[in-house]
Write a structure and sequence with these properties.
Elements lengths: L21 E2 L11 H8 L15 H10 L6 E4 L1 H13 L2 E7 L4 H9 L1 E7 L8 H6 L5 E7 L11 H10 L6 E4 L14 H7 L3 E6 L12 E4 L2 H8 L9 H12 L1 H24 L11 E4 L4 H7 L2 E2 L1 E2 L5 E4 L3 H11 L11
Parallel strand pairs: 1-10, 3-4, 3-5, 5-6, 6-7
Antiparallel strand pairs: 2-8, 7-8, 9-12, 11-12
Helix pairs in contact: 1-9, 2-9, 3-4, 10-12
């Protein structure tokens, strides 16, 4: 098992010409890929003159074996975003119902796919409003998106509430359960993927290797579903769309489960320490179950920007920040410790 030290992390870089001490805007894993993954990927460079599989076979089989499902139930793509785009293109026109705020990609992809976005505000506790989401479903609904953990708040819906919600959605309406951050959940908070898929033929479960696995730059995501629905998604598969390096990276990542678990534990520990520090300053940061924190309240995004910290800002002045880098956490605390405001309690 690798020894974790306080690293020089990729959060400490500049993405464009604007100066920034820390870049915390994209909920990335702060650690570089494990050495075994880098070795595996490097070994594929010697075959870079060769095309990958016309349509991916090895990667879906590998993921399916890991999850305990059939290979025909897995579709892969260019990150969770790429697979979500395949889902939307497969479903035709209509409405996409999801909470707001949400992952930035969903409104953009909905427009690209010709779907009308139906945004449903979070409830007064800051959670996804399941009754309101259910009421938003109508004959034009082409897709329902539910995030667990939620992006950007990091909150997690109760397992029983999710099961009841899925049972209440008409079977003709596909539900995309976005589990991009599932590896950061405690075991007791995780849903039984196989049991859910067995009960709900309209369910699609979306996951990625970008977050916990730290492979965002390789763009590897997948969707799990059943029957005719997953076949419609597979029909959108881009030929030669999954690089050979992705197969090698996933194989190495699965073989390094203990090391990856240690990294997730480290990130979760840093997240809780920073949350407690910020709450002691008077900021009501919701309990997060992902690799980021949502910092509610007017002036937060501005204070971070002025301190040279790039965050994901929201129209009301709130911000989301990536966690896991101790130095970045100290900078966030320094930027916000003297900030006060009418914070909204959302946990």
């Amino acid at each position: 098992m690798s020894v974790l030290v306080e690293p020089t992390l990729p959060s400490q870089r500049v993405r464009d010409s604007a100066p920034a001490l820390f870049d915390l805007g994209l909920s990335e894993n702060p650690f570089p890929p494990l050495p075994s993954i880098m070795t595996a990927v490097s070994e594929t460079i010697g075959q870079a003159n060769r095309y990958p599989e016309f349509l991916p076979q090895r990667l879906p089989r590998m993921i399916a074996e890991h999850l305990g499902v059939g290979a025909a139930e897995v579709v892969v793509g260019a990150g969770a975003t790429g697979v979500a785009m395949q889902v939307m293109r497969a479903l035709g026109t209509g409405e996409l119902v999801t909470s707001t705020p949400t992952f930035d990609g969903y409104p953009l992809m909905a427009e690209m796919a010709g779907l009308s976005l139906v945004p449903v505000p979070l409830d007064t506790a800051g959670d996804q409003d399941l009754p309101a989401l259910r009421r938003a479903v109508n004959r034009r609904t082409a897709l329902m998106v539910l995030c667990r953990p939620h992006n950007p708040t990091g909150t997690v819906l109760d397992t029983g509430a999710v099961r009841s919600f899925l049972a209440a959605i008409p079977r003709r309406v596909p539900v995309l359960l976005d589990e991009a951050y599932v590896e950061f959940l405690a075991p007791a908070d995780r849903l039984d993927l196989r049991a859910l898929l067995h009960r709900h033929a309209n369910l699609l479960i979306l996951r990625t290797f970008s977050k916990a696995y730290g492979l965002a730059g390789l763009r590897i995501g997948y969707c799990v579903g059943r029957g005719e629905l997953i076949e419609r998604i597979r029909a959108q598969q881009l030929p030669f769309g999954i690089g050979t390096a992705a197969v090698a990276a996933v194989r190495a990542a699965y073989a390094a489960d203990d090391e990856l678990h240690s990294r997730v534990t480290h990130i979760n520990t840093e997240r809780e320490a920073l949350r407690n520090t910020l709450r002691a300053c008077g900021i009501d940061v919701p309990a997060s179950h992902a690799n980021f924190l949502y910092l509610p309240g007017p002036g937060v995004a501005t204070a971070l920007r002025r301190a040279g910290i790039r965050a994901k800002p929201y129209p009301d002045g709130s911000a989301r920040i990536t966690v896991g880098d101790p130095a970045a956490g100290r900078a966030v605390h320094a930027a916000l410790r003297d900030l006060r405001g009418p914070w909204r309690q959302i946990d």
